[in-house]
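Just curious. Invent one:
>
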Amino acid sequence: MIRVVRSPYAEQHVPGAEIWLGTRTPGTEVPKRARVIASALADWPVVEATSHGDEALLAVHDAELVDHLRTIWSRWGDYGVERVVPYLFPTAGMLGDLPLREPFAPHAAAGTYCYDTMTLIGPGTWEAARGAVDVALTCVDLIVTSAVDEPVIYGLTRPPGHHVTRSAYGGSCYLNNAAVAAEALRRAGHERVAIVDIDAHHGNGTQDIFYAREDVLYASVHVDPGAGWFPHYAGFADEVGRGAGVGANLNLPLAPGTEDKRWLDAIMEIVQRVMDFEATAMVLSLGVDAAAEDPESPLEITQDGFYRAAELLGAMGLPTVALQEGGYHLPTLGALVKASLQGLTRC
């Protein structure tokens, strides 16, 4: 069985709501997600995440972002709202050639580091997000030290992370767990690491962090942002990397209603790219929100499709850190995650 790494802080983040098109709506990235997944994997061995320093975290995120997330809740004033939510965004359109300054007011600072109104911060958000990073790093520790007969470690990372860029958070994500894991694998001696992202939405943050690097491949299959899906501004097929990173970025956007066959064709294309890249380790951003029942995407993938996709990825035989990203239909979430992990090891 695959070992499952968990953090005791995972459920401390309670977003409370999302602000969508100016309207308060129920949150979808809720604590129950972690409980549902843990319940589905209850018979598998559990490892509690150990505390790690900030070295790998600060290698992929600006220190200013990390400091903001660490302190913003304690600095948040009494504005009559129960969560940190930005209202002002210092975009290039606002500032032009003017310098970006750190505002005095915490309610103004929120928009410096958050790029949407959906990703709220509450009293336990930092602890949960930092705990998810410790989950990712503990998975790397286990992969690096484990025997070859244990090639896959699963991290129940909550909140998820693949939408976090080097300098900003959003998309219900606060710190980029997959990016931290990939960087840690590099520092542990893996010369070339592949990040494979099968979440229904493009991991714009992970792409941003490694876009100009040649040692980390980012490959994603996701619903086409050109069809009106988050993250809207990134995830297009012509985004292939920059500078030394040209060729180390692969986006495979799919039309709504794609279903299993075309999705699995895309997985096969990713497998070939990973093999051509000669990766020595893999980080799997395991989002299962492409599922047919999931309200957050229109890709219509079945549970069998997830098993078969993971089976194709696992057949490469790479040491693999699988980290949880999306998946929001609670009645099927646990079974989807379990099937995917079973596919990775054909068990």
User: Anything to note?
Assistant: The beta strands are 3-6, 18-20, 23-25, 46-48, 152-155, 193-197, 216-223, 249-254, 281-286, 320-324.
